[in-house]
Amino acid sequence: MRGHAPRLSPTASLNHLADCQGASLRHFLPILLCACTLFEPPADDAGLGRAEPVAHLVGCWASVGPEGDRWAVAYASPAPGILLGTTRHLRPDGTVSEERERFEVDQDGVFGVVSELDGVRRDRFVLDEQRSTTQQAVFTRAGEAWPAWLRYGREDQALHLELGGQGRIVRMELGEVDCE
C-alpha cells in the first residue's frame, strides 16, 4: 500500500480482481449488502445531506500493487445518512484481509467513520470539516495511535486514499471499475 499503485482501466471489473483467488463479485458484494442488514438506520433520519461529505466514494474501485497484490473496494449507501464500505486485500492464494467501514452520524450528532478489520472493531474517526471539501473528506481521531488521520479524495476516475500521522503518510490510488 505504499506509494502509488497503478491505475486500472475504467472498463476493468471487480470480477477480474476477484478472479485472482477464484471468487467472483457475486461473492464480494453480498458482504457489503449483508452489512446493510446488520445496522439499523438512525432513528432521526438525517437524509442524504448527512453523508454528503463522502458521497464521492459511492461505487467500485480497484488497484493492483507492484508485487501483484490487489485491492477491491466498494461503497454503497443503503439508507439515508449512511455509507458502508468494504475493502478486500487479495493475493492469488486468497484474501489477505477484509475491512468494513461505516460512515454515519453518531448519537452526539458528529459525522464519522468506524472500521472493522478482519472482524476486529477499530477506533472511530470524526470528520474534520475545516480540511474537507466536496471532493475530499478528512477524518481525524484523538490519541497517539497511527494513523492519526484518513483522507478520501476523488479526482476524475480515481479515488485517492491517504493514512497519516507521526511524520508518515501511506498513499493509495484506486481506479473506478464496474461493479458487475
Structure description:
A ten-stranded antiparallel β-barrel has the order 1-2-3-4-5-6-7-8-9-10. The longest helix has 14 residues, at 25-38. The radius of gyration is 16 Å and the shape is globular. The chain has a single domain (14-177), classed as Lipocalin (Beta Barrel). The protein is built from two helices and ten strands. Helices cover 11% and strands 44% of the residues.
Provide tags for this entry.
180 residues; mainly beta; Lipocalin; 10-stranded antiparallel beta barrel; 2 helices; 44% strand; globular; disordered N terminus
Tally of separate helices: 2
Which bin fits the share of residues in helices? 10-25%
Output the strand order for the largest sheet.
1-2-3-4-5-6-7-8-9-10
For the record, the CATH class is Mainly Beta
Radius of gyration: 16 Å
Structural class by secondary-structure content:
mainly beta
Distance between the termini: 25 Å
| Overall mean confidence score, pLDDT | 77
Question: What low-confidence regions span 5 or more consecutive residues with pLDDT below 50?
Answer: 1-48
Number of DSSP-assigned strands: 10
The CATH architecture category equals Beta Barrel
H-E order: HHEEEEEEEEEE
Q: How many separate structural domains?
A: 1
Looking at CATH, which topology would you report? Lipocalin
User: β content, as a range?
Assistant: 35-45%
Chain oligomer state: single chain
